[in-house]
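Worked Example 4.2. Read the sequence first, then its structure tokens.
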Amino acid sequence: MPAKIVLATRNRHKVGEIAAMAAGRGLEFSCLGDHRELPEVVEDQPTLEGNARKKSLEAALALGRWSLAEDTGLQVDALGGEPGVMSARYAGPGCDFAANNRKLLAALEGVEPRRRRAVFRTVMALCSPDGEVVLEDGVLEGSIGLAPRGTGGFGYDPVFLVGDTGRTLAELSSEEKNGLSHRRRAFEKMLPHLRRVAP
């Protein structure tokens, strides 16, 4: 029987990516969308670690099950590391991906390409039913393009140029993205801990 783990998110994009990475590893996921009785977690911590820990802990304790959460931030050198922990809400409450990208590109208007270096960082938190939390992270280096490109992915993927490939994350296939992304790198570090759930 696959081990059942709650993904502490209602973001269907993240659920799909993590489920694809876990394929064939004896893991089975539900997500918070399957547990509508649980309230939204208020992501009010000042760090990615804090938000990931809080999301996994609240879900695990409420459901009495193992829970995996993550928080991801885009850190842009020319903006002093912003939007960082505020990445999902960069353009304000209720904003969408396009609004966040527009604000980011406006903030970088006139900044030359060599100064547009950025990293995506994901922190994952696995919490046991009794509240024990372990953290791992993954980083993807790149830069911010001059305009959105590509139709894949979500979030800042259309403006994030991967390394020196000249392509944005949104121009990669889902298989390519899931093979190299910040989320994949965090997941690979988390696998030894997940084997405690699915030996």
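Now turn to a second chain, presented in exactly the same format:
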Amino acid sequence: MDEHLLTQALFRDLLRVMSRPGTVKALPPRISSISPEPLVAIAATLLDQETTYAVLDDEQLDRAVRLKTEARTAPLEDADFIFVPGGASGGRIVHAQRGTLAYPDTGATVLYRVESLAEEGLTPTLELSGPGIAAQAKPCIEGIDVDDLVLLNSINEQYPLGIDLILVDTRQQVMALPRSTQIKVCGT
């Protein structure tokens, strides 16, 4: 399968998880032909020369995204896409673009690399509600800083302003938390 068809398949998968918050989907099996790093494959799908991005604390990932997409780097507060490969932004996501009332779609999309994703588990990390969720979803996310999830809640309080989240785990699975999703962090 050529790269163009793979990025189309990946885009459809991203749309599916964005429309069903808390749902976990395996990335297309041949995604490694785009890049062995799933975040770079997603970047190749979403970014182009017209978009800007910032990568937190990972020069190798920054270089790979730049080479694969030809997108422009920008300060975090101006970036359309923000990559958090370590699972923690150290509070820096509060500076991400949230859009404006006239153009809420200009809010940033933040992509996290985490250890694992599961739709359910013995100890859920989150309780989700909102559009695309039938009753309530209780996914487990290992390897993300809980403080970032708490910040995400406050960032997205003024919907339609806010940021969207895409999470990718080490098993090449993806989950999304769009800005319309109400999040309760379990144990806080």
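Notes for the reader: Helices lie at 3-19, 38-46, 59-69, 146-155. The radius of gyration is 15 Å.
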